[in-house]
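subagent[fold] <- orchestrator: predict structure for attached chain, return tokens only, no commentary.
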Amino acid sequence: MDLGLRGKTALVTAGSKGLGKGCAQSLAREGVNLVITARGKEALEATAEELRKAHGVKVTTVAGDITTVQGREAALAACPAPDILVNNAGGPPPGDFREWDREVWIKALDGNMITPILLIRAVVDKMIERKFGRIINITSGAVKFPIPELGLSNGARTGLTGFVAGLSRKTVRHNVTINGVLPGPFETDRLRANFSFNAKKTGKSEEELRRARAEANPAGRFGTIEEFGDACAFLCSAQAGFITGQNLLLDGGAYPGTFG
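subagent[fold] -> orchestrator:
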């Protein structure tokens, strides 16, 4: 299927590794020119060169922390009017809520709720003027099925989801959609960090925890960033203009509810 995206421009934050890279790869394959951001310059440049060689698209890099004012300003200077915005940022660390003071909470909200909202605010009106826009927020399966040790993520990402539920109903008549993609267990650094945290807490090895988690998933495995990226690309497509305010859960069937 031709997704109707060739020649469009996407801003993908935290796009050098993991799920962000998966989205960048799938969009580049569809002929989308990219601006990708990340804090680590070396990995960012390596990913950009990989995408250029594989797909022949223009890839601009912006090294910086998207959760800061300076990081957002730099990204928007490089890409002031994207057709597609993929909001992504590393999740806050796991832990016990008793240990989290106000500053810890503010940092989590800044990274996983306020930053995406500010980026949406910066680009959505230009999308409306052009009568095309696709905004994807990478959140977490924890929005539907909270994970106790990820309370910071549960709170911040659910706040973003609630905000988007209202805004997305106002923009869709202009062919500007806003959706969430909710990852379950994917082969990423984030997943490995969670295994490390739980290994220290339980005394079990990381490999033991990893094997048990994979076997417990109905799919019997973890997802790949390629699978995640392709789901993102479809929601960005010309064909997806009637899908908005939705939260697509990609978790191999782990969520036990009827309406996932």
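orchestrator: received. Logging for downstream: The longest strand covers residues 176-183. The chain has a mean pLDDT of 95.
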